[in-house]
Amino acid sequence: MPQESTFNDSLLEFDRDNIWHPYTSLTSPLPTYLVVSAKGVRIKLKDGKELIDGMSSWWTAIHGYNVPELNAAAADQLKNMSHVMFGGLTHKPAIQLCKKLVEITPQGLEKVFLADSGSVSIEVAMKMAIQYQHAKGNRGKTKFMTIKNGYHGDTSGAMSVCDPEGGMHHMFSDFLPKHFFVDRPSKTFNESYEKDELLELEQFFRLNSEKCAAFILEPIVQGAGGMWFYSPSYLSAVRELCNEYDVLLIADEIATGFGRTGKLFACEHAAISPDIMCVGKSLTGGYMTLAATLCTKQVSDTICNGEAGVFMHGPTFMANPLACAVSNKSIELLLGSNWKDHIDAIEDQLKKELSPLAIALSVKDVRVLGSIGVVEMTESIDIPKAQKFFVESGVWIRPFRNLIYIMPPYIINSEDLSKLTNAIKNYIVG
User: Fold this and answer.
1) Which residues are identified as catalytic?
2) Which domains, and CATH codes, for the chain?
3) Contacts of 270 (CB under 8 A, 6+ apart)
4) Pick from 222, 276, 344, 345: most CB atoms within 10 A?
């Protein structure tokens, strides 16, 4: 038997040579770190080093890791079944989850389609919009309107409504269908638009709405497209224009849902309800992949009274009972906690500890909303160098482009949060 250290080295060598990680090269691979366990807000590496997690595993692990209640929910469900097809069959975990989602999401979202992942829920939402317009006889409404610098996922339909020029998928622009993009809102979260300042947006609707089934956006927070926080008054205006021009509004709450921005759902900042809404990521508390697309009764009735008579989508692992059971417990944990107080405390501390960095010459902007903290640099970040620095500092922070950002688990305490912000400070100013 080889020594454990040698065995681990061989594992990492195979990983480096053969396994594609997200947005990485196999010819110039980024370093990867072998994780053996995770608990609370800490990720433990094979060498024994522990890292305070600043990423919540890409927005998902809102309760932290190795949560006893979520572990128990998964174990209990395994005693009955881990999976059963959802075609012609149903089960209690899915029914309970859909009932809860209808209760807690914005008013009017009464119908639920459970999907495999966030990207798939976006595909589902787009297909819903197309089928809806088709059933209404609007067969020319086959395009979508959206905001530049948005991000909605990595599958083909989702990519097509990501920014085609500055986004991560610009090289696929000749392959993807062409949609209509308006400049991202320039006013920040704490600013408001006056009506005469939204004339460009109104003209955008006037010129393009006859061809478009829906307007899709990330409410309030644009995530992987630039971590931009925009004015709720802009979202309110989009809702009004969608009503006026017979265009559905799709809200992508995959990253923002379940409390991340200080509201249970980001749409609540503008007090609006979309026609279709996608949720995912933290839905299961980071335990496994699951997402949902919710819509109004008007949307579902129109689709089901149309030519097909059914909604034309059906993922194999739709409504996985194991994922649904964990999701039910995750939502129960969230709603049973003082989550709003926790988010407010994180926001206050992030503002206090990150805002002073705005004066650094290498910093372009500092933004904080809810439990999201963003430091935008003036130049692109050397990702391998930054990653190594943060790991050596005992934290897990994964920058991209020119952005250093954190969105820690909601359970993080002030001491551990300060270790994250101090690591960012030390990286920037030394």
Assistant:
1) 23, 151, 252, 281
2) 33-66+337-429 (3.90.1150.10), 72-335 (3.40.640.10)
3) 219, 220, 232, 233, 235, 236, 239
4) 276
